[in-house]
Amino acid sequence: MLLRFSLEADLIFNAAIPPEAEPVIEEKVTEANTVLFLRGVPRDAAEGEYGQITSWDVQENRLCLRIESGPYTRSHDALLRFRKQIAPVMGKLRLGVRGIDIRHFSIRLGDDVEESCIPRLPFISSVEVDEAGCELTLAMDLADLENKTPDRLINLIEEKAENAAYGGKGEHWELLFESKKRTGAYSGNPTEDMVARGWIRHGASRGQWIFAPQAVQLVRALEQIAIEEIIRPLGWKEMIFPKLVTWDVWKNSGHAKGVYPEIYYVCTPKSRDPAYWEEVTDYYKVTGDVPIEMIRDRIDGPIGGMCYAQCPPFWPFVKGETLAQDCLPIRVFDRSGTSHRYESGGIHGIERVDEFHRIEVLWLGTKEQTIAVADELHEAYARVFEEILELEWRRAKVTPWFMAQEGLVGVSETERVGTTDYEAYLPYNGSYLEFQNVSINGNKYPKGFNVKVQSGEECWSGCSGIGLERWVAAFLGQKGFDMADWPENVARLVGEPEEVFRFL
Ligand code: ATP
Ligand code: ZN
Ligand code: MG
Question: Does the beta carbon of 262 sit less than 6 angstroms from any atom of ligand 1?
Fold first, then answer.
């Protein structure tokens, strides 16, 4: 990607710059162009690829600079380095830098970047497209430059360009294991049949179910199998993770980069004074309608959202810590509450819901430990699906395209980073359903939450989400409702369905 930065900025001093300062400035500009700006630049970089002060001029108390660059020592970076370099010499002349005024800042991109890859952001005041590519004029101040906003903007444009090049293919799918076929007598739709039997009914909210005792018997039996056959024997200990997740957690976990379309947002009242809410309560009492707009005016936030992925809100527990060698690998799990996703048009039966129940298994340690734990877990899952639940299932490695393209797959260091999906065959629609996954997340979370291990090695982590609705759909979808067809142990754990309700 062709990349050129052009910056005009004034260093503002506390007093007029005297003529005797000019030779000093000239000397420092030359030094910057020939030494300072070359630091960190690859040896084979051509002239013009790294930052240069191409002209300067004194106007009263301002030192007006023009800085041009390619991808190295970018103009904004050069400006900040130069400020640091010139400050002490000007200080000797009793001149102090009081501020920096950005007069003009633009970025030129080559014609390999489609206009659709340029984000719409308040910092981008104009985009001009021509034969050679396009030119972005930026409205950024000093704080934005110090915050590395221009570099993040370039990264974002590169990311969008790459995504566009791979045509929105979400992930790369590779089969790792396939169980034997197991054809049973049942090929119905388990959701419809559960509804017909009074095991579940729609909740008041979209994508939400109310589980009657018969359904809960099955859910809890499957949960018990997961916990007693897999989780506890392998040494996992239970924790309780929060279910309301704030932005700072999602910033550290990386979810803040993209989770917005699927969040159930959470807001707090601006005041808990009943008088502040009286108009709302009065309106409701008189009309019978809840006045959404009046409420919107009286709430803050959103401060975050409901649990989406289950593990991010665990991480503040270890944030900033160094873990002692003798407690590693750490293995914990959470089953303390619901997860919520706005699945929009995608909601489907109990398989794809907006409110679901999941056991989240999480582990962390060194790289070797993290990989070894994942392997143990895979083995235990395979045993349960083969010998206890007797499912027709398969396992596939799914790699997001950006990772495949970055060459992260197959490189020995990182080949194990990524997600393995477990999928079950659903006879009623002839498709496979992802019912759980196992992810080795590498150093992503430890880095995001600044967690270290005692040995000084890189800290890695993994997690596995066991979706209970998906286990139910997989099990019932294959085994049906005649308990005589179920594996005996499962039938015994579930027991005879208990009917509590009879409707007239
Ligand atoms: P899908 O591709 O089916 O949307 P996902 O890739 O979004 O799944 P993950 O983010 O990997 O799912 O979540 C881990 C697990 O959580 C899934 O394997 C599944 O068991 C469960 N899960 C995720 N979304 C839902 C949902 N909408 N309804 C029920 N279970 C879900
Ligand atoms: Zn997780
Ligand atoms: Mg999904």
Answer: no
